[in-house]
Specification:
This protein is an alpha+beta fold. The chain contains six helices and 16 strands. It has a seven-stranded mixed β-sheet with strand order 1-5-4-3-2-12-15. Strands 6, 7, 8, 9, 10, 11 and 16 form a seven-stranded antiparallel β-sheet that branches.
Length: about 325
Amino acid sequence: MQLTRTISLRFAGVGFLGSLLLLWCSLGGCCSVDRPDGTGFIPTGENGGGSADLKDTDIDLESRTLPTIPAGTVIGKAAPEGWTHLILFATPTLTKEALAEAPRTAAEYARMFKFTLLARTKKVGTTYRLDTLARGFAVNLAGKETVINSKKTMGARMGLFGNKILTENEKHFEADVRQVARTTTMVMFDAQAVMRQGTEHVKMVNRHAILVDPTTGKVSTFVWLLSKSSDSYDFADKAMQLLPENMREARMLSVDRNKFVLGIPSPDAFALWRIPQGKTIAYSEDLKKVAASKELKREDIVTMEKALLAAASAAEKK
């Protein structure tokens, strides 16, 4: 009897942990990775996000992970010391519908880790560069939102499954959130994600572009949603989003109860309701030609960066 109970508890624990991992996979976008086959400058090392190896005319089209924010970095209302811009601080949030569908403990873990993006610009002569774009997960540590990682948790209290969830999420993030283009003034990355479309949960791509105006030093962050087929991407929305500075997002989650089997969710049981919201920016004619490209080329990036800078400038004047 005791053995049966022990086995049952272990099975329940594995199923619960699996559901939490899949929940977090929906935040980071744990679908199959699509890596573009482009040509361009390829600096040494796996990590992207840095401009030290790039010359002014270089374009890196190699698929890379984003660098990580050092553990112990405290996130406040603006960029922490050593950084110039807080790009995004996203807190996973369950809708009323999702709260009714998901286990209570899963809801608690879902809110625990906040996805964070930081940038650092620097001025070289009279020109600004985007020196680094880095990512991490923050937790509430003694009342302060502090970046941790699975190897350096800073003493954070994460409960029975927290460290395992963080470890697995880091692995999935490295696989499915990839830098796809880099210049001295822009980083573009794709996050494979499950999105809610109508009543369905669908595998899609959240494309992000973070760029600095080389003349003024102003940093702009654009996000847009792409649908995917076996060999191409297409626009899923009529417009993109220009995010505000120091963006704090409630990252809303959807739960589909029909995708649970014996209490264990399928990979698409959880989904994001939408991409981060800011100022709606219509696609220019130039962006319509290149912003949904799956296999990016050097000329696509040149066109895209120029068009995004123009869009950011126009939005600032309104």
